[in-house]
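Extended Data, panel c. Modelled sequence:
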Amino acid sequence: MQETITLYFREGPSDKVYQASIQPKDQGFMVHFAYGRRGSTLNTGIKTQAPVEYQIAKEIYDKLINEKMAKGYRPGADAGNILAPSAPKKHTGIQCQLLNAISDVLLEQFLSHPDYWMQEKLDGRRLLIRKQGDIITGINRLGFPAAVPEAIVRSALNYPRDFIMDGEAMGDQFHVFDLLAIGPEDMRQLHYSVRYLRLRDTLDAFDHPHVHLVQSYSASDCAALFIQLKSEGKEGVVFKHQEAPYIPGRPNVGGTQLKYKFYETASFIVAGLNDKRSVSLMLLEHNESCPAGNVTIPPNHDIPNPGDVVECRYLYAFRESGSIYQPVFLGLRDDIQRNECSTAQLKYEPDPV
């Protein structure tokens, strides 16, 4: 019994292929995979070190496919197309709101504060979507045009009026958490509670299989939801004052909209390439480069080039060396500028008691 699939992903300059197969060997089955740029020699690997029962191989195979589909890969040579921006270097004039983080010390007061609402913080690609007639424009966190998956475009075009929505793209799904404009009305100076309810009503008015509302919860539900999200391994939560306007950029300190992450992440600059799919990382401090350790690149990611900005998850950083402990590579970040990759991002090893 043999199965095989080829998946494709295209976004901007990226044109990737991923293959997976179940192949019989001896008295069992092996799960093979291959990946790389379309038309190039593919990197290959095996997910099972020895033959396993078919049902076990099928579970591994299905998990691989589901993970790739969640990232936007699709079967068929023309699948996975993502519409590239028409003017990728021209600023749109729209800047997203960026949030500061809160510490564990302040967490309790936000969980129970009657004026703050809470949303799940998703682990996707920040994306604003602007609809002007039949034109859909994706906008990244820097304010520049960004590619939009075709499935999201089709859903957005189902709404008859123009809009600007802010959210996170995960594969071909858009999770929207704020509404900046509807028709000719600029919503940014209105209270968050008003924007959220208008967003909910807007999404209720049309069919949008690839656009989803990120639910917002009041203080009475926050504590239970917080525990649930953390136990499920989610990224974190966002707290928004119900009267908060939408203010572009990031405040120097605090703010009326704040984030809390269940684990630490930071953006790093790739300093160099090591052996065995590993790269060295660095951060900036007073315009001087500081080493930040190494991270292994998983087989399902292309190896980044020196100078690229990448996102990594980690447990904490060592104070003396600045290296991060238990790093996990999350992916490239073409929407993060190099000067944002500073040591100020780091959370350091707790002091001994």
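The two ends are 58 Å apart (CA to CA). This feature is highlighted in the accompanying rendering.
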